[in-house]
Amino acid sequence: MAAREFKPDRGAYIRAHAWMAAIGMGGAMAVLWIMGSQHIWTGAIGGLAAIALRGWYMASEELAVVWTLTREALSGPAGRSVPVTQIEAVKTMGSYVQVVTKDGDKHLIKYQADPAATLNAIERAKA
Questions:
Q1: Which domain holds residue 75?
Q2: Is residue 2 included in any domain, yes or no?
Q3: Is residue 76 one of the residues assigned to a domain?
Q4: What sections of 35-127 are H helices per DSSP?
Q5: Taking residues 67-72, what's their average pLDDT?
Q6: Residues in contact with 52: Cβ distance below 8 Å, sequence separation at least 6, in sequence order
Q7: pTM here?
Q8: Where are the transmembrane segments (predicted)?
């Protein structure tokens, strides 16, 4: 098996932030409504602005993360390396793929264009 790289997808990154913005907008509006504010709509602007700023600020860092799968290990940022034999479970969560080790460590491979394909590649390497 040749090494396989899992790079983040810009479209998945934008979709994830759109969902976060929608939730943030609704949450901020709900808080203002509970507080009795007459300007509930400002929560939508604040929620959108917060997530848009976060998305813009973090994009270069988040979209540069690459995970590499070889026959022996799954390697990621900051020197993370998980031997394939130590992978207990692989799950998808939206555009994320979560890898759980036998020791209980959890790693996220974020913003995958096709998270099911990423999961399947890791599962095949485990087998």
A1: 67-126
A2: no
A3: yes
A4: 41-62, 115-126
A5: 95
A6: 17, 21
A7: 0.85
A8: 12-34, 40-57
Terminal-residue alpha carbon distance, the chain: 12
- C-alpha count within 13 angstroms, C-beta hemisphere, residue 106: 8
* Cα-only R_g, the chain: 18
User: How many Å apart are CA 36 and CA 44, to the nearest integer?
Assistant: 16
Backbone angles phi, psi at 49, to 5 degrees: -65, -40
Token pair for 3 = 């090494």
Residue 14 lies in a domain: yes
Q: Which two tokens stand for residue 109?
A: 């491979």
Going by C-alpha positions, the residue among 86, 88, 119, 125 that lies closest to residue 1 is: 125
pLDDT above 90 (res 38): yes
Separation of alpha carbons 101 and 111, rounded Å: 20
Residue 19 CA to residue 67 CA, distance in Å, equals: 24
Q: Are both 43 and 75 inside the same structural domain?
A: no
pLDDT (0 to 100) of residue 1: 63
